[in-house]
Structures are given as C-alpha cells and as structure tokens.
Amino acid sequence: PHRAKGYGNIELYTKRVEALAFFAKFHEVDLWGGGWDRVKDPALREIWKGRAESKAETVSRYRFALCFENAIWPGYITEKIFDCFFVGTVPVYWGATDMEKDIPKECFIDMRDFSAKGGYGELRAFLHSLSPERIEKYREAVREYFQSGQFRKFTKEHFAETVLRAISG
User: Fold this and answer.
1) 55: nearest Cα among 24, 87, 77, 90
2) Which pLDDT belongs to residue 67?
3) In the 3-class helix/strand/coil scheme, how is the chain assigned residue by residue?
4) d(Cα 46, Cα 23) in Å, to the nearest integer?
5) In this structure, are residues 106 and 85 in contact, taking their beta carbons and an 8 Å threshold?
6) pLDDT per residue over 74-105, tens digit each?
7) What is the mean pLDDT of residues 125-149?
8) pLDDT given at position 1
9) With 60 as the cut, is the pLDDT of residue 3 above it?
10) What is the pLDDT of residue 80?
11) CB contact at 8 A, 12 and 72
C-alpha cells in the first residue's frame, strides 16, 4: 500500500489514498498533482487529471476538496485548508488533533466526525445531503474567520514578525 515515509502510525497519506479510491468508485472525485502518474492503482490513475496550472483556479472549480494532511499531530496545519478557504471551496479536513484551537469548526467538514463511525460512506451521504444554503454557511464562517484576529497567526506578516523576534533575541 501507499504510505508517507517518516511519519509512522500518524501518517494520513494512506487515508487520503483510501478516500480517493472510495470516491473514484462513484466517479465523484478528480485527482490533481505531481507524482500520481507513477501510482500503479488503476482507480487512482483513472481519476488523475495531471498537474494543475493554477492550484487556486483548479480548486475553485469544486464545492468540496479532500484536505488530508500528511500526518496527524497537534498544531500541524499546512496550506491545504487555506487553499480551499481562499477560493470558496469547502474543505473536508483531517489533520491537526487540536484544529479547533486555530480554526473554527464551522469553517470546514471534519473528517474525524466520520472516520470512527461510518467512514467514507457516511461522509459521502453527508456531502450529498448539504443544501446550497448550508454550503454557503461554511463559506460565511470562513469570511468571518479571515476578518477575526484568529487568522492572523497564519499570515506572512505574523511569520515575518516571529522570525524577526527570534533572530533579534
């Protein structure tokens, strides 16, 4: 099976591949990115669309996106969820164990709500049940989050200030 190297039992790459294979059975998922052309799994090869010229433009074409980090650990939040936020796509997120500390739960669909119960089948049913109004509520929550001080932690300005503090002692 496919596994992310170096993460041990906290890796999520395997779960990402499982989710892709599940949704591929229903022809409800596209796969973009580099390296997937080397994957031997025919289900994944079939849904692979190549490299995206523009990640933002490509992600913006979808209502939902699977946003599984490479691993699960506290505070580990990468660009994946923000790529969705910036273009209005609702992320199905799996990653940081303390996610709600940094990003309100109203902004994303938390895969942890489905993994222990009905898994991907339950997630699929949930996604199909969402009305346009409910999807818009996720987007509204993201806009409110961006306007809050809580988002500042993830800005390049905050990063620059943190580095400057660290080197100036």
Assistant:
1) 87
2) 96
3) CCCCCCCHHHECHHHHHHHHHHHHCCCCCCEECCCHHHCCCHHHHHHEEECCCCHHHHHCCCCEEEEECCECCCCCCCHHHHHHHHHCCEEEEECCCCHHHCCCHHHCEECHHHHCCCHHHHHHHHHHHCCHHHHHHHHHHHHHHHHCHHHHHHCHHHHHHHHHHHHHC
4) 12
5) no
6) 999 999 999 999 999 999 999 999 999 999 99
7) 97
8) 43
9) no
10) 95
11) yes
The DSSP bridge pattern shows strands 64-68 and 48-50 to be unpaired
DSSP reduced 3-state for 1: coil
Task: Calculate ∠ Cα 77-131-88, nearest 5°.
Answer: 40
What would the pLDDT profile of 10-52 be if each residue is shown by its tens digit? 889 889 999 999 999 999 999 999 888 888 888 899 999 999 9
Quote the DSSP letter at residue 27: T
Whole-angstrom distance, CA of residue 66 vs CA of residue 91: 6
Burial readout 74-112 (b: 16 or more C-beta within 10 A, e: otherwise): eeebeebbbbbbebbbbbbbbbbeebeeebeeebbbbbe
* Residue 131 neighbours by CB distance under 10 Å: 8
Amino acid at 147: Q
